[in-house]
Amino acid sequence: MGQGLSCRIRDDHGLFTAVQFGDLEIVKTVLDRDPSLLQQTTVYDRHSALHIAAANGQIDMLCMLLENPSVNPDALNRHKQTPLMLAAMHGKIACVEKLIQSGANILMFDSVNGRTCLHYAAYYGHSDCLQIILSSARTSHVAVSWGFSRFVNIRDGKGATPLHLAARQRRPECVHMLLDSGALVCASTGGYGLPGSTPLHLAARGGSMDCIRELLAWGADRLHRDASGRIPYAVALKHKNGACAALLNPSSAEPLVWPSPLKFISELNQDAKALLEQALMEVNRERERTILKSTGYSMPSPSHSEATTMDDNISEASDSQLCCICFDQLCAIEVQDCGHQMCAQCTLALCCHNKPNPTTASLIAPICPFCRSNIARLTVVKVKVNSVDQDLDLYSSPKQRKSRKSQNLSEGSSSFRGLSFGKMVGRGSGRVSLDNEYIDKP
Ligand SMILES: [Zn+2]
Ligand SMILES: [Zn+2]
After folding, report:
1. CB half-sphere exposure, 238, CA atoms < 13 A
2. Would you say 168 and 212 are in contact if contact means Cβ atoms under 8 Å apart?
3. CA 357 to ligand 1 centroid distance, Å
4. Chain centroid to CA 233: how far?
5. What is the average pLDDT value for the chain, to the nearest integer?
6. Average of pLDDT values for 347-358?
7. Could you give the maximum distance between any two Cα atoms of the chain, in Å?
8. Separation of 339 CA from ligand 2 center, angstroms?
9. Contacts of residue 135, Cβ cutoff 8 Å, sequence gap at least 6
10. Whole-angstrom distance, CA of residue 214 vs CA of residue 210
11. What secondary structure does DSSP assign to 13-67, as a single string?
12. What is the C-alpha separation between 421 and 408, in angstroms, rounded?
């Protein structure tokens, strides 16, 4: 739109063209000669100079214009779009930031589809702009008057939330960010109890595997029916998104779900959270590979390097402890306050449930599988930098490793459904614990 924005401008005085190209000198000269020009708008779309600066990312121009007290940061064009909406639409992050600092209202609706700046950022996939708007919403008057979660789930004229738009337009980063900020994964465009589409329906239509993966990991319902009575699987088939349909087929394996409603998750530190998210995605990707293989679809493009990055991090920590539950991964997560450690996958299996049931969802805080104490916090195990001094520290003692392994056999398996424990029996059996420090008391 950058160039297109001004193509229909009748610009006798040259102001709008100069704004578009960021020519500060010309703009100053023109406005010195006739300050009233600042109130002029383009003929057809009725863009103000501020709209043009915002849409074209002319940050210096935008700052200069905003210094003038007669310039309204929430000026409306023909479609009731604000400069902030245009900046969010075009991904002009500096302009979004500056406009919000200057008091632009994030809770304005255009007259095209009744959309806010948050809808624009989500629709066009500008996750950086989305982030700025969300953090402004947390602190601004909007949080007080509207409530933050209501803002995140704000509907446009057709009932679509920003999450619907991001899912439809194949914007996985925005989908993730919105879900992380409390967007309702099951929101229906219907509203008032009427049937409508969920974000999963729209992702099935858009055909983005990444979006579908995110939504499923957040507990999206594969059986929800839209206004035509279709489940997301049917929508994916209709739009010939075969691989997506395979994942959405209700008869394929249930994905592991991120336990967002659990209270303790808010007490996760950021590193631990990121690690668990990676682990969850990795487990689900494994499941996808199986599903896709059996249906004859191959994985689309070698996706994401997250998983390998994580593996690299872990393999560096050569003296880390092997997880006592799966004997497969290294310990990455530490339970507090007890200090027991396990790998990210096992932590997830402990806290995740395979099939969320909203009616009976029990919000019982998870407990440590080793000592049964409540989990107050999860932190990332500090990886020791390969230092030369190989002190016999607590966590590399073979004696303890052995004791934890054997201790694990007596329990754990029941609470860790959803993961494969093929290796546990083979590697852990036959060991006898001589050290009862970690043995569980009934
Ligand atoms: Zn494990
Ligand atoms: Zn413990």
Report:
1. 13
2. no
3. 26
4. 23
5. 78
6. 60
7. 92
8. 6
9. none
10. 6
11. TSHHHHHHTT-HHHHHHHHHH-GGGGG---TTT---HHHHHHHTT-HHHHHHHHH
12. 12
Cα 250 to averaged position of ligand 1 atoms, centre (Å)? 28
Q: Are 164 and 197 in contact (CB under 8 A)?
A: yes
CA–CA dist 238, 204 (Å, integer): 9
What tens digit of pLDDT does each residue of 196-239 get? 999 999 999 999 999 999 999 888 999 999 999 999 999 999 99
Cα 280 to ligand 1 centre (Å): 13
pTM over 0.90: no
Among the bound ligands, name the one nearest to the CA of residue 326.
1
| Residue 15 · residue 37 · CB < 8 Å | yes
Q: Give the ligand at the shortest distance from the Cα of 347.
A: 1
Burial of residue 402, with CB atoms counted within 10 A of its CB: 0-12 exposed, 13-18 middle, 19 or more buried:
middle
Structural element, H or E, at residue 336: strand 333-336
Roughly what angle, to the nearest 10 degrees, separates helices 209-217 and 270-295?
A: 120
Contact 167/131 with Cβ under 8 angstroms? no
Q: Please name which of 219, 155, 220, 163 lies closest in space to residue 190, comparing C-alpha atoms.
A: 155
Could you tell me the distance, in angstroms and rounded to a whole number, from the CA of residue 419 to the centre of ligand 1?
A: 9
Helices 172-180 and 127-139 cross at an angle (nearest 10°) of: 20
| Ligand 1 centre distance from Cα of residue 219 (Å) | 23
